[in-house]
Write a structure and sequence with these properties.
It comes from Massilia agri. The structure is a single chain. Helix 10 packs across helix 11, helix 11 (304-320) runs parallel beside helix 12 (365-377) and helix 11 crosses helix 13 (395-405). The chain is α/β, with parallel strands linked by helices. It is globular and about 50 Å long. An eight-stranded parallel beta barrel has the order 1-2-5-6-7-9-12-13, surrounded by five helices. Strands 8-10-11 form a three-stranded mixed beta sheet. It contains 13 helices and 15 strands.
Length: 414
């Protein structure tokens, strides 16, 4: 008997890199194609099933399905078939940094068209995929606004803090419109709003930058979630029900030293300014009191198992404090190329080996072994049965493990 039923059928989730932005060279990127997920979807989902993962973040490529407001969703049919065959429940990413060429993201038309697209997407996927239904309307609103509004990496190629703020607000308006449109189709649909969990500190020799670093940590990091939940700019229509499930992305480079121009510098392992991840997660929990997942996390290269060990320890320490942690998303399921260099990052559950023009999936065994260890610690399944959704996660097992293991927060982000 389930004592504390969770939202998802498994505690561990995964997902696939699905960015489709116009990159700084003017060409549209398609990371689903670059990682071979478009050709290997059945295999990719079989791998997740064999690992006891029944939930995956999967993208619907808005720029590719929406032509002037007329949507053709047939491009996602192979993924739907692969998911259904492997009994994987999707969290649909509806805008993963890309939008149609004919739209200006600062316009009212962008908000209206995104709402129409979200409604059409919901109508398409809901009859084809067993429920419950989960959506991420706009992935990483905060990072998207930096990437495309201040750093000029992607369309709309803006390069000022003012444009970053404008873009963030525009994306929040669109996301709220998207949630409302989806719930017109299915009032029970759940939303997972993903954004990075970051902490910024001033350089030791720049006390004049302490306030800027503090502002980015305590204001900029949370502004999108604050708008979605109605804490800020309530005229946009946000509410706790709109925010719904908070997805905090956790990476080692999320703790940074402030740089006035351009991306900040990640703090090196052992830096005394690093804060325990538990404390950072608890800050999010205390601010919103909404169900949470770690929306993305992964180490790099040979550090993947150690990273998972650290993240799980810190997460359970936060659970022991009372955080409602519904799951941890090991992202990505398969490796991805660095956006800038094209080199493989080495952060997936599976590495990709180029062979005869194809990308062979090779599970990283040490990473998988660490996943297996945690599945056993939490009394979780290690492979999926015939109907994974029939028996939701018993979160009491997670709470019990948090108290039994009694992991103490620390600053080790090595």
């Amino acid at each position: 008997m389930v004592r504390h039923p969770g939202i998802f059928p498994t505690f561990f989730l995964s997902g696939f890199e699905c960015s489709n932005f116009l990159w700084k060279d003017g060409a549209r990127r398609n990371l689903v194609s670059e990682t071979g997920h478009d050709c290997h979807a059945p295999e990719d989902y079989r791998i997740l099933s064999s690992l006891g993962i029944a939930v995956a973040r999967e993208g619907i490529p808005w720029p590719l399905v929406d032509r002037g407001g007329a949507c053709d969703f047939s491009v996602i049919d192979p993924y739907i078939e692969a998911m259904n065959t492997s009994k994987i429940l999707p969290i649909w990413d509806l805008c993963h940094y890309g939008y149609p060429d004919d739209l200006d993201p600062f316009s009212d038309a962008f908000v209206d068209r995104f709402g129409q697209y979200c409604r059409a997407a919901a109508h398409y996927v809901m009859p084809r995929v067993p429920g419950p239904h989960f959506f991420t309307p706009i992935n990483e609103i905060t990072f998207f606004s930096f990437c495309a509004g201040e750093w000029g990496w992607a369309a709309p190629y803006r390069c000022s803090r003012e444009d970053r703020a404008r873009l963030l607000k525009a994306l929040c308006r669109a996301a709220i419109a998207g949630v409302r449109a989806i719930r017109e189709v299915d009032p029970e649909a759940r939303m997972v709003h993903i954004d990075p969990l970051v902490r910024v500190v001033a350089p030791r020799d720049r006390p004049d930058q302490v306030e800027a670093a503090r502002y980015e940590t305590h204001v900029d990091t949370f502004l999108a979630w604050d708008i979605l939940c109605g804490r800020e700019l309530p005229e946009y229509g946000g509410s706790p029900e709109i925010l719904d499930i908070v997805g905090a992305n956790v990476y080692s480079f999320g703790q940074m030293e402030y740089r006035e121009n351009g991306p900040h510098a990640p703090l090196p392992p052992g830096d005394e300014r690093i804060a325990p991840l538990c404390d950072m997660l608890d800050t999010v929990w205390q601010r919103y009191r909404r169900p949470m997942i770690i929306g993305e996390t992964s180490g790099l290269g040979q550090g993947r198992p150690d990273w998972l060990r650290d993240v799980m320890g810190e997460s359970l320490a936060a659970v022991r404090r009372g955080m409602d942690l519904q799951g941890v998303c090991l992202f990505p399921a398969v490796d991805m190329p660095d956006w800038h260099t094209g080199e493989w990052v080495g952060n997936g559950i599976c590495d990709l080996h180029e062979e005869n023009g194809d990308l062979r999936r090779v599970p990283n065994q040490a990473y998988v072994d660490e996943l297996r260890r945690w599945q056993k610690e939490l009394n979780r399944v290690t492979s999926l049965d015939e109907d994974p959704s029939s028996d939701p996660v018993d979160l009491q097992d997670v709470v019990d493990a948090a108290h039994r293991l009694n992991v103490q927060p620390d600053k080790d982000w090595a």
